[in-house]
Amino acid sequence: MALSIHNWSKLDNDSRVALLRRPAVAADERVRKDTVEIIARVREDGDAAVRELTRDFDGATIDRLLITTDEIDEARDQLSEEQIGAIDLAIANVRRFHEQQRPGGIIVETMPGVVCERISHPLDAVGLYVPAGTAPLPSAAIMLAVPAAIAGCPTQILCTPPRSDGTADPAVIVAAVRSGVDRIFKIGGAQAIAAMAYGTESVPQVCKVFGPGNAWVTSAKSLVSSDPAGAAIDMPAGPSEVLVMADATASPAYVASDLLSQAEHGADSQVLLVTTSDILAADVNREVARQLAALPRAEIAGAALEHSRIVLVDSLEDAIAVSNLYAPEHLILQIDEARAALPYLRNAGSVFVGPWTPESAGDYCSGTNHVLPTYGFARTYSGLGLDQFMRQMTIQELTRDGLGQLGEAVMTLARLEGLEAHAQAVRVRLESSE
Prior knowledge:
Layout: E1 4-7, H1 13-19, H2 29-45, H3 47-58, H4 69-77, H5 81-99, E2 106-111, E3 114-122, E4 125-129, H6 138-151, E5 155-160, H7 170-179, E6 184-186, H8 189-198, E7 208-210, H9 215-225, E8 232-233, E9 241-246, H10 252-263, E10 270-275, H11 278-292, H12 298-305, E11 309-312, H13 316-326, E12 330-334, E13 350-353, H14 359-364, E14 390-398, H15 400-416, H16 420-430
Helix pairs in contact: 2-3, 2-8, 2-9, 3-8, 4-7, 5-6, 5-7, 6-7, 8-9, 10-11, 10-12, 15-16
């Protein structure tokens, strides 16, 4: 399996756009139609609909949706001390990094007698979704639950799909509980998003839903976020992706391993190598073929490589331009003096600097959050952070003298907009003898 190689300088603009196009997201009209029906059923029949949909889609019969303390204890017993130690290390680093993101208050006297403030509050209720799919994702539970706990959201719940025997993945349960969330529901797919967004007899309604998922989950998040009665969402989500920027100093084995680590996520994932070295490009292709053959998920990774690319560029400046245009979820810098390139890189979810920084570190244990914008949304969205679990509110307080200084300007601007009542609200105070 070899990635196709393309020379950037020989392509016209249309060809460049086509080269950087992502695989089509599987969110066609059929997915949307099915998702609309699932949401309607959950809103109408609550827990009963969730149980029916769980039986239909997950092959599991669930009597009690909320995981019990006995199930939490059983999950703990199924993990080794080494596994729990790895989970705890990840939690500690993620907590350490996110605790530094606590927002500070702002108080500014914009002019004498006019004080403006900005304060932050945790969101009242958040819903965290951890998919299972082809593999359980305890790391996603950590990335979602740790900032929710630090923010202090009064209501924090987590949904994850059950296995066919009616149990949830033990690593997901342990990671969630040790991260600070102990209300875990065995619900997956679009029905989980609907249950959190609108509430059921068992599942409390939340005001914002977080977490990745398949096409139906993504569609459900889009639908509930566009409904005033639904819930906000963290960000648009698509298949996982990585762009590796490399020069002749890079290790072909390292580059190939980074490409494959994302390709194994799913057949719709995309990986790109942007390099100034045609020799490295050829060496990486040989390494990809060698390493791919030994992977348990070789078939999935191979499918992703079919729509992945190697882009040859003439200079590092061109490589940076390609990266900024593509706006990758993950950007890995395997170039000489990698940190010097950071000021010129604008559009990426998370950046991994130097040969000793595999993307895997950020996925699990370095401390940054791995919930990141995909599909080019890194141009306008940030990765998940503490701020997304909080909301900001501004406050202003004026003295009589402060209003006196502002009053004429306020009334003038109000009348420019034809809003006389706005002007009147100022005038009656300025004319008052109180």
